[in-house]
Amino acid sequence: MTIQDQVHASALQSGWFAGRHPSILRHWLASSLTLGMLTGSMMMMGVPMQPAYGDSNSCATPGKDGAINANDVVNSYFPPATNSQLAAGATSITIGNYYTEGSNTPISEGDMLMIIQMQDATINSSNTAAYGSGNTANNGRGQTNLNNTGTYEFVRATNSVPLTGGTLTFEGGGSGDGLVNTYSKSDPTVSQGGRTFQVIRMVQYASLTLSSNITVPDWNGQVGGVLALDIAGNMDFNGFTIDADNRGFRGGFVPNDPSNTSGANNGNYVLSGNTTEGSGKGEGIAGTPRYMWDGTSAIDLGSDQLPGGDAGRGAPGNAGGGGNAHNAGGGGGGNGGDGGTGGIGWEGIGGDLDGSRGLGGVSSVASPVGDRLIMGGGGGGGDVNNDNNGIRGGQGGGIVYIQADQFVGAGTITSNGSDGEVGEVVGAPDGAGGGGSGGTVALIAQAGNLSGVTVQARGGNGGNTTGDSGNEHGPGGGGGGGVVISTSPGGQVSSPDVVGGQGGQADSGNGIPHGAEDGEDGIEGTLNPFSVPPIQPGANCFPALTVTKTEANPSTPGERTAAGTANYSITVTNTGAGGASEVQLTDILPSGFTYSSGATATLSGGATGPATPTNSGSMSVPIFGDYTIPKDGSVTVNFTVNIISGTAVGTYQNPAYATYLDPTRTSADANRRVTASTIPLPAGNTTYASGSNAGNNTPGSNYDSAASTGEDVVIVEPTQDYGDAPDSYGTDKTAGNSGSDPVGASHIVVAGIHLGTTPPDIEADAETPLDGTGDGADEDGIMLSTLTEGDVTYSILQGDISATGTGTLHAWIDFNKDGTFEASEYANVAITSGTPTGDLFWSGFTAGSAGTTYTRFRFTSDASINATTPGRSASNGEVEDYALPIAATTSGPRFVCDDSAYAVIGTPSAFRVLDPVTLLFSTVHNTFSPPIRANGLSFNPLDNYIYAFVSNTQGQAGFATRDFIRVSSDGTLENLGKATSNTNPAITLNSGSSANGVMDSIGNYYNLGDSSTLRVVSIGNNPAAGTLTFENRVLTGLPGVAFDLNFNPVDGFLYGVRSGVLYRIPPTGGAVTAVSTTGATLPGAAGGSWNTSSGISYFYKNSNGGDNNLYAVDLTQDPAVVTNVGPVEQNGQFDATSCTPPELNKDENLDVVPAGSTVTYTYELFNAFGTDIFVSFNDTLTDPNITYNAGTLSTTSPGGGTVTTFNDTQLSIASIRLPATVSGNNRVSFTVDVTVDPGVTSGTVVQNQASLLFGANPVPSDDPATGAIDDPTEFTVTDPIPSTPDILLTKRITAINRGLANEQLFDTIYVDAGATDDNDNAVNWPGPPINETSGSSTVESYIAGIVDGNSNGAIISPGDEIEYTIPFLSNGEVAAQEVLICDLIPANTTFLATGFNSSTPATPGPGDRGIFINFNGSAVALTNANDGDEIPDTGSDDGVGGYYFPAGTDPSTVFPELTCNGTNNNGAVVVDVSSVPNATGDGTPTNASGFIKFRVVVN
């Protein structure tokens, strides 16, 4: 693989003229534009004015292509996609692939385009003196009708078209904003030569300074040959040259066998191009002949292209005729002047053939001159008899069209024809070629003069003959001079050189002309720019932007208060003549106003740009763009601003401005912007930079806020509601108060949204005393329930919430009584049309000591209010604060809800805690107090107490078997008595098993009395003694009592083990099902069981001296996965339970990570409670080798939480709502990316652990990929992957064509059965053939890079054709640029140059095609030479697609950086694949791979 870069570009354009010939009266024009007319009509008060002929489409976008120092061709050229006629009034055309010798700039909306008919003339094709014009008086020269030859016009593109072509739409100056003229493209017929026209992107510069000579691209028979520029400011030649020499119509010749005619004169005007009786005609306006010479290579189109034939002395249109046998000279091409006739032929010493000499092409200029732009005609070839390569005529000059504000600096434009070829072959004289005609140069200056410009459009000289002194052959005729037309206020180009070329002479120029004639001089004259169909020159097309502005609800009654919003609309309209580029709208907001977000734009009148613009300015000075706005187009940008809380009362006005690229900017300030001089943007440019308009004021006007009230915003004192909790909670409005917010909790009173049924009262500030005891009759939204010291959960039910309107109820309770509302003390619930969608629920806290605490409830639709904003103002709604008494408790201290397993062991029960990591017990209390034996332990998440049955009273008074007890964290017991039936209080729960029990997430206790009875005890939150009730639910399918039970919060089912089988038990009763498991074998029964919130159940088999292992069962898998965690202390009397706190899993997507790569962390947060809970999240990257990637958090608000910190090393999120277990989805998930430092040593282990804050209780994250509990997440770093491109190549034989006459093209055994798709990776390949040796169908016998000999035809014989396929894949870290693929032809084979001649060509044209490529959506055949035949859609401009290098020619002579890993002893295939993006996945992107084919013949 070799990376290289080679770029070519080119350009062209033109206009309509009126002029005069210096010597030929037939070219006189009756009228021309005077200097006074030009100056008076084009300028007024220093501002360019639109000419009277213009219409709504008469300007494009001046200066659109910038201010540059040009050193290469600049125009893009496009042919019609098919033969077609583009009628007057048309507004669209389908164009083909761009000309790669030109620029690679695609067409975009607003571009100025030139459409020009290059060839359209008709001729008389009779072999008489009437040939050409149809008039014998013209002696075989000219045309019967120019038709539309040379007509052209400018249009404005109204859509964008890629370089590969497509449908182009445009606006012009004709009917219906369509074309003025008609344009045609067709193949040659028996009555007319081929007709061609092209579409050219005319470059619109603000100013142009040449930094080197510029060469116009060759005319290739379809496009090119023209350079056209539109410059709104200065055109500075800077001493350099624009060279269009030899870029016009091409010279003719015939390469056939030498002439052997002798005797009589050969006076044929027209002959077949395959004749031996004369030479070929040149190319011109009447068509393109079969044989042509473009100055570097011969071209053969395969058959005659001109009516009657392509050879003979007759001159079709402006092309020179060919010299006839014997050795007559070719005629010169014509344009401004006629071409000269070629010299007399030779017929022995002293003899001649006067009637055989080639006739010169006629002047193709019609009156008025400027109505057509025509390239110089090609000269005719000289007749030869000493060689079959032919003697070629010269090429005509191209077209140069430049319109600028003014020309500065000295420079030169040349559009000369080239000389005809010398009449000599291997030292022997032959007829010489005629000279090519000069081309056409047209210049328009709106100011100044053209004194610094030197212009040449000379005819080429006829070729001399050599070695024929006294034995004269026919020299070539001179080419006619070209056309130079110009205008400026200071006059036209001074003395342009349009001299016709000299006729050739015998004896190397030292002898007689022998009948060869000089070409006529060309035309110089004045160009009338008003005759050019629109679009106008850029210097006359400056935009004028007018800005207006409104506010959605201005002034009264649009009064609003601080902390509100305003909605602005800024409209910019272009009332000038031309389009404006990169328009930006700027709004300098008033103090206290800041940009919000969500700007939208409405575009009309052809304006283009973003419909959802981003703010490229600041929050106080937003800027929107960029837009292109044509004449009469407009853009309206709508956006919202926030009015900062505390903004002073008053009326706020502010102006708005538009800026755009200066259409006259220079390369010294290539991005210079201007704004209207009326109400200018502060510090903005208000004058033009260059040209005659330099220093003149820019037209248009910006928005004057002082003169209008349309955008006024009036701020008034708000009507607000405040809370009344103590000010430590952020209550009053004093800035900098003692509360938690600079401005206390307040709501602007807006009708239709408030708590309760009574609208809030209006207050100037929080009403004292600030004690939460009452703030008026409007405090009617919340009914509070009792809070007891030590409580760990608290609820406010839906029925206790009253509201009006739709929004969110935000609630805080100061549970720890520290005088502030914290995010960990927050809950919320949505309210729709006054109806809450759920309860308010708090958990994870421990209520403080008995006394008084405070609450705050804020109902609003203001999205800025969240868990972190108990203070600050809201734009609507109401705040209500309440004092909340905390009652004293009579129960003991509570447990902490963490993942510890609490166990009772022995009789009486010793109370212990199991460490989930070490699996060791730590003693909390040796016995309960009083010392009894308990069983059926279950942790109640509603009150953080453990509940159990009394299984043995141990003689303690006041307790009975199957009494329910409440266990405090200090081991003290409260007897709650027996549960009674909910249908008959006389029935107590006093029988059945008491060895199992589990609590669900909402306070229900489940006990299996026997295998068919599930008893459900309603415990709830901290029940009083004697209040427990139960109900029985029927079970089926359980073979016996399962010990112990647990509750899985993920699916809401109970689980137990019986005889080693895991059972799923519905808590509502019904059918019990066995659960399929995999992994370790479960114990026969489990005396202790508990679960986690992520769906992991633990079972412990307690037995002295038996199986005492702890088993984990992942119930989220199917089948459930059983893991033997390890042994636990042996004891035959054991029970255990655990709280199910929220759980945090943290996983990484890669276990092994290259340094410098990205790792994605996935977090899953689980909830085991029966109601939604709120948690806070934090992950601090303590390892210095990793950092967070900004903007990679997968959701902006995980679980509705508020991201409070997100920087390189910390991610913190407050108040994540975890859904309730009963919702069926008890989790919240999100991801974030981190980057591994590229300098980390390979082998480094990176560890990190996140955490949840559940109230005041931290919950560490767990790595779910390991068996360990609560362990950090880790990965191992390896060496970095180099960020380099890489191309993977393979090669295989994909087809064999046996060289036997009785066989088909390719053997079916060895060819892709779907050969029409050229896809060797398709599934339609046949199976392998039978191997003769093994007698079986084996892989070895199938073609896979080698050919195995067998009876099915895989033995290669001389004459066989072999097809090689080379698949390639870009598998590096970055795209591979300018890829070259080389393959040496195998020894004993010969490259098949015609292998893919029948396949679709990459670019239509002549030449064998032996290389095939499938890439980037195209499957095409490439020629074998560096001829511009390119791989499609690669964006390459190097003119190289496929290339075959013969043996002995090193490819590095063309591609210096290319090595082919060997010597080119038998030929080499090189393919330029250009840029290949790197593969990012299987088949992604599609152009990351492709394949190349070529074929060889076995020697």
Q: Would you write up a description of this structure?
A:
The protein is mostly beta strands. The protein has one helix and 101 strands. It starts with a strand and ends with a strand. The model is unreliable at 1-57, 735-740, 1300-1354 and 1433-1440 (pLDDT under 50).
Structural class: mainly beta
Low-pLDDT sequence parts: 1-57, 735-740, 1300-1354, 1433-1440
Return Rg in Å.
Answer: 46 Å
Number of extended strands: 101
Write down the overall geometry.
elongated
Give the percentage of residues in beta strands: 25-35%
Assembly of the depicted chains: single chain
Termini gap: 29 Å
Task: State the share of residues found in helices, binned by percent.
Answer: under 10%
Number of helices: 1
Largest sheet: 13 strands, mixed
- The pLDDT mean sits at 84
Helices and strands in order:
Layout: E1 2-3, H1 35-42, E2 43-44, E3 47-48, E4 67-70, E5 76-78, E6 84-86, E7 92-95, E8 112-119, E9 141-142, E10 152-157, E11 166-171, E12 183-185, E13 196-205, E14 207-210, E15 214-215, E16 226-236, E17 241-243, E18 251-252, E19 291-293, E20 298-300, E21 315-316, E22 345-346, E23 352-353, E24 399-408, E25 411-414, E26 424-425, E27 428-429, E28 440-445, E29 453-456, E30 483-487, E31 523-526, E32 545-551, E33 565-574, E34 580-587, E35 593-595, E36 600-604, E37 623-629, E38 634-643, E39 650-652, E40 656-661, E41 673-675, E42 700-701, E43 713-715, E44 720-722, E45 746-748, E46 754-755, E47 787-788, E48 793-796, E49 803-804, E50 807-813, E51 826-832, E52 835-836, E53 840-843, E54 851-860, E55 873-874, E56 878-887, E57 901-905, E58 910-914, E59 921-925, E60 933-940, E61 945-952, E62 964-967, E63 973-977, E64 980-981, E65 998-999, E66 1004-1010, E67 1013-1018, E68 1029-1036, E69 1045-1047, E70 1054-1058, E71 1061-1065, E72 1070-1071, E73 1073-1074, E74 1077-1079, E75 1088-1091, E76 1096-1100, E77 1109-1114, E78 1120-1127, E79 1134-1138, ...
Parallel strand pairs: 4-14, 9-21, 13-16, 14-16, 15-17, 16-24, 17-25, 24-28, 25-29, 28-30, 30-31, 32-42, 45-55, 47-56, 64-68, 68-72, 74-78, 80-90, 81-91
Antiparallel strand pairs: 1-95, 2-3, 5-13, 6-12, 7-11, 8-10, 8-13, 10-11, 18-19, 19-20, 22-23, 26-27, 32-33, 33-38, 34-37, 34-40, 35-38, 36-38, 39-43, 40-41, 44-45, 46-49, 48-53, 50-51, 50-54, 51-52, 54-56, 57-58, 57-79, 58-59, 60-61, 61-62, 62-63, 65-66, 66-67, 67-68, 69-70, 70-71, 71-73, 75-76, ...
